[in-house]
């Protein structure tokens, strides 16, 4: 089985080229691939499949139907094998892989996801910008992290987030255990972010991703905290620092755009797991 490895601000992924949709990716296989000791290692798997091939085996939800017009679909799986609707770092890495593999010309094109079609722009300087759509604020929520109760803003970026502001450096927050949340508010689980404004226009953030645990970065989480930090009805540009680097979020009436690096670091072959 051919693979590539890539990352966006050190949120890393195993990339599986499967244009015709022939691979069978059960949760056990995905978890084995993402195992950092016995597998390749990654926060998730990006299967590169033609949308027409994916649609032979999977029906998209009504909200994702715009993806049906795209040529390439980002079939994203969390490290535990569970499906995810969207991944902001993953889609930038996915787009970089398409261009470097000759499957897509550089510039602006659409990528299909389970959150719908997402326009991406692969730039000459190594940065990739993705249109993330509208980040929807859904009201307050609560979480218990490392023995402490925090409140935050529930935000949908195609997938669910709880963005919690803190008054002290985010490095001091315990993200080692599974966050405890209200299943009534988050029936499908939730990505939990803690964030703090460290300078005008600059946020720092850490994240615990559902299905993966704490990661070095989360693109949709970066957008979620930027939205949570922006007063309702206003636009803003935020630099968001994560343990793995920095991205920029542009918020306006049209929605959110996420800009950051995407790097392919290796290619090779692995025995089927």
TrEMBL record:
Question: Which is a Gene Ontology cellular component entry for this protein?
Answer: cytosol
Q: Is the keyword Cell wall biogenesis/degradation assigned to this protein?
A: no
State which pathway it belongs to: Amino-acid biosynthesis; L-lysine biosynthesis via DAP pathway; DL-2,6-diaminopimelate from LL-2,6-diaminopimelate: step 1/1
Q: Which EC class, in a word?
A: isomerase
This protein's superkingdom?
Bacteria
> GO molecular-function annotation terms?
diaminopimelate epimerase activity
Subcellular location, record wording: Cytoplasm
Record: residues binding substrate: 11, 78, 88-89, 159, 191, 209-210, 219-220
Site described as Could be important to modulate the pK values of the two catalytic cysteine residues, positions?
161, 209
What are the entry keywords? Amino-acid biosynthesis, Cytoplasm, Isomerase, Lysine biosynthesis
Record's InterPro entries? Answer: DAP_epimerase_AS (IPR018510), DAP_epimerase_DapF (IPR001653)
- Catalytic center residues: 87, 218
| Family annotation (Pfam families) | DAP_epimerase
Chief subcellular location: cytoplasm
Q: Which GO terms describe its biological process?
A: lysine biosynthetic process via diaminopimelate
Catalytic activity line of the entry: (2S,6S)-2,6-diaminopimelate = meso-2,6-diaminopimelate
The record's EC number reads 5.1.1.7
What is the similarity comment for this entry? Belongs to the diaminopimelate epimerase family.
Which PANTHER family does the annotation name?
DIAMINOPIMELATE EPIMERASE, DIAMINOPIMELATE EPIMERASE, CHLOROPLASTIC
Q: Please explain the role this protein plays, according to its UniProt record.
A: Catalyzes the stereoinversion of LL-2,6-diaminopimelate (L,L-DAP) to meso-diaminopimelate (meso-DAP), a precursor of L-lysine and an essential component of the bacterial peptidoglycan.
Q: How does it assemble?
A: Homodimer.
Name used for this protein in its record? Diaminopimelate epimerase
């Amino acid at each position: 089985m051919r693979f590539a490895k890539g990352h966006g601000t050190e949120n890393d992924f195993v990339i599986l080229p499967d244009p015709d949709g022939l691979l069978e990716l059960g949760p056990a296989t995905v978890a084995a691939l993402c195992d950092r000791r016995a597998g390749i290692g990654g926060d998730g798997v990006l299967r590169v499949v033609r949308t027409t091939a994916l649609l032979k085996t999977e029906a998209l939800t009504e909200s994702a139907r715009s993806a049906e017009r795209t040529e390439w679909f980002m079939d994203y799986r969390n490290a535990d094998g569970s499906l995810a609707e969207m991944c902001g770092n993953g889609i930038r890495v996915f787009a970089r892989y398409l261009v470097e593999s000759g499957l897509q010309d550089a510039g602006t094109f659409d990528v299909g996801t389970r959150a719908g079609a997402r326009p991406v722009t692969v730039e000459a300087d190594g940065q990739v910008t993705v249109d993330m759509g509208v980040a929807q604020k859904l009201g307050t929520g609560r979480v218990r992290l490392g023995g402490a109760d925090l409140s935050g803003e529930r935000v949908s970026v195609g997938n669910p987030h709880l963005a919690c502001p803190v008054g002290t450096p985010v490095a001091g927050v315990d993200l080692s255990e599974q966050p405890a949340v209200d299943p009534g508010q988050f029936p499908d689980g939730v990505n939990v972010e803690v964030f703090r404004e460290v300078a005008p226009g600059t946020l720092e953030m850490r994240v615990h991703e559902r299905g993966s645990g704490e990661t070095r970065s989360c693109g949709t989480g970066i957008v979620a905290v930027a939205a949570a930090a922006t007063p309702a009805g206003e636009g803003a540009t935020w630099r968001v620092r994560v343990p793995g680097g920095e991205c920029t979020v542009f918020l306006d009436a049209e929605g959110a755009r996420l800009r950051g690096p995407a790097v392919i670091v290796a290619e090779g072959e692995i025995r089927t797991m």
